[in-house]
Amino acid sequence: MTSANAxxxxxxxxxDGNAQDTAAGVHDEExxxxxxxxxxxxxxMTTGTxxxxxxxxxxRSLRMAWQTDRAATAGLLACQVGTGVLAALGLLAVTGxxxxxxxxxxxxxxxxEAAPRLVVIAAATGLRALLGIVVTWLTGRLRPVLAxxxxxxxxxxxxxAEPAANNKPGYNDFYDIADRxxxxxxxxxxxxxxxxxxxxxxxxxxxxxxVLHPVLLxxxxxxxxxxxxxxxxxxxxxxxxxxxxxxxxxxxxxxRWHMAYTESGEEMRACLAGPxxxxxxxxxxxxxNAAEREAADxxxxxxxxxxxxxxxxxxxxxxxxLWLLASGRMDLAAGGGAVFALQxxxxxxxxxxxxxxxxxxxxxxxxxxxxFLDNAHGQAMADSxxxxxxxxxxxxxxxxxxxxxxxxxxxxxxxxxxxxxxRGEIVALVGENGSGKSTLSRLICGLLLxxxxxxxxxxxxxxxxxxxxxxxxxxxxPQKYTHLPLTLRDNITFGQxxxxxxxxxxxxxxxxxxxxxxxxxxGLDTLLTSEWFGGQQLSGGQWQRVVLTRAFHRKATLLVMDxxxxxxxxxxxxxxxxxxxxxxxxxxxxxxxxxxxxxxxADRIVVLDRGRIVQEGTYDQLTREPGLFRSLWELQQRTGDxxxxxx
Length: 647
Ligand SMILES: Nc1ncnc2c1ncn2[C@@H]1O[C@H](COP(=O)(O)OP(=O)(O)OP(=O)(O)O)[C@@H](O)[C@H]1O
Fold this sequence. Notes:
Residues 399-635 form the ABC transporter domain. The protein is of the alpha/beta class. It has 22 helices and ten strands. The chain folds into two domains: 11-381, ABC transporter type 1, transmembrane domain (ABC transporter transmembrane region fold), CATH 1.20.1560.10; 396-643, Rossmann fold (3-Layer(aba) Sandwich), CATH 3.40.50. 63% of the residues lie in helices and 9% in strands. The longest helix is centred in the middle third of the chain and has 54 residues, at 273-326. It is elongated, with a radius of gyration of 34 Å. Adenosine-5'-triphosphate (ATP) binds next to helix 15.
C-alpha cells in the first residue's frame, strides 16, 4: 500500500479506519472522563475561591521550591523583595520629579532639584532589569530540578499503590491528571513568582496612590474585579477541558507508543495496522482538538469580556482622577504623580489577576498531584495492608477458601480455592486459558488480596504483612516479564545492589544464561537494548533465560514461575526442569505451565477450571484417572506423536 493510499484510507476511515471502529462498537465516549464529583468541584470554582486559595498556593509553591533548592528559592525571594523596593523607590522618585518640574520657580533651580531623583530613577530601572536577569537565571536552575523531583514523587506514590489499582475505575484517569500536576509544578512556582513580583510593584503603586488620595485605591481594585472574574472563568474552562480529555489523551499516547516504538513496530508494519491506527488516532485527536479549541474559544471570549469590562472600569477610575483634579480636591503636582502611580498599580493588578488565574489553574492540577501523593486515589497499600513482618522466612504458603474478582469484572476469577505450598515442595498449577492460574499465583505472592477468604504465610495473612518486607521472600517470573534497557548484570540483580560476579554467574549457570555470555560484547556489562549506542538486543528465549537468572539469583523462599520456559529451546527447557528439584530444596516452588509433560517434576499438581480446583494429585495419579488433566495431557501426547516431537 502506498503512503498516499494509507493516508486516504486513514482519513476516510475505510476500510481500516472509522468504519471498523464503529463496527467494533468503539466510540470516543469510552475514553471520556467520568468522575462527575471532580468535574463538579472544578465547575464550582469562583473568583472568591481563587482569592482565598491564592495565598495558600503561593506558600505551597514556595515550600516546594525551598525543599528542592534552598539557595535558588532564597535568591528568588530576595529578588522579588528587591524588585518591590526598587519599584517603590522609582515611583517615589518619579512623583518627586514631576512635583519638582511642575512647581513654580526658576527652571534651572527646578532641574537641579529633580536631578538626584532622576539618578534614583535610572539606578532603580537598571537594578530592576538586573534583578529580572537574576530571576530568569535562578528560575532556569530551579525548574528542571523541581520537575524531576515532582516526577519521582509520582513514581513512588504509584509504586506504593495496590497492584490491582489499575483495575479500579477512574484510577488511571486520576493518575494522568495527577501526573500532569507533577509536570506543571515548576509553572506553579513561576506563576507564584509573577504574582509576588506584581504584588511587590502594586504595593509600591498603591502606597503612593493612598498617600495621594484615599479614594483612588478602592476605585482601582473595584475596577479590576470584572477582569479577575473573567480570567478565573477562562482558567476554569481550560482546567475542565483538561480533565474531560484526559482519558482520550492517554489513549492518544498509547497509540503513539505502539505505532512509533520498536516493540510493536514490526507487527504494525507487517499486519498493515498502521493506517487503521492512524485513522483511529486522527479521529480521537480531532475530538480532543475540538474540546480544546472550544475551551480556547470560550477562554478568549471571556478574556475579551473581561478586557472590555476592565477598560470601562479603568476609564471610570481615570475620570475620577480628572474629577479630583478639576474640582481642586487634588493639586496638579500630586495629579502628575497620581497618573504615574495609577498606571503602575493598574499594570500590577492586571499582572496579579493574569498570573493569579494561571496560578489557580495550575494549582488545581498541583492539588490533584498532592491528593495522589496522599493516598494514591484511595489505593495506597499503606492504607489497606498491615505492617507486620515475619520473624524468619516462611515455611508454608496457604490459600484458605478464597474468592477473587477483578474490579469491574462480571464474575469471579477464582471461587472457593484452597491450596498449600510448603518449602521443599514443587506445586504445579495447570488448566486451560483463563482458568485462574496467574491470578492464584498473584494472590499467593501477596500481590493481590483476596476478595474473601485469606492467604497466609505461616501464621500471618498477606493483608497483615508489610508488603515490601514480605516481597523480600518472593522471586516471581511473571508471564509478561520486564526487559529493562540496562546491562545484563542490572537485569539480573534487578535492584538488589552489587551482589558480586560469583553470585550472578552462579545464577546464570542455573538458568543456562551462561551459554550466551561469550556472544555478548561486554559480558555481564552489556547493555541489553539496541536503542542506544553500544547496546545489544537479545532473542526472546535469551531474554527468558535472563528472567530465570533474575529469579534464581534472588534466593527467595517462594519461587513463582508462570510459563517460565515458553520461549526456551528443548535443551534449555530440559536444563531448567532437571535443575528444579535441586532449587526446591530450600524453596517453595509454584509452577504454571501448559506443557503437561513438564509437570512430572512437581510433587503435586492442582488443576483449575473456570476459577475452581477440579483435580489435585501427583503426575502418575492424574495421568491415570479420568478428568480434565488426562484429557489435556492425552491431547498433547497425541499432538507430540503426530509431530514426531515430545509434548
Ligand atoms: N488484570 C485483570 N483484570 C481483569 N480481569 C482479569 C485480569 N487478569 C485476568 N483477568 C481475568 O481473570 C480470569 C483468569 O485469568 P488468569 O490470567 O488468572 O488465567 P490463566 O489461567 O493464568 O490464563 P492463561 O493460561 O491464559 O495464562 C480471566 O477470565 C481473565 O479475563
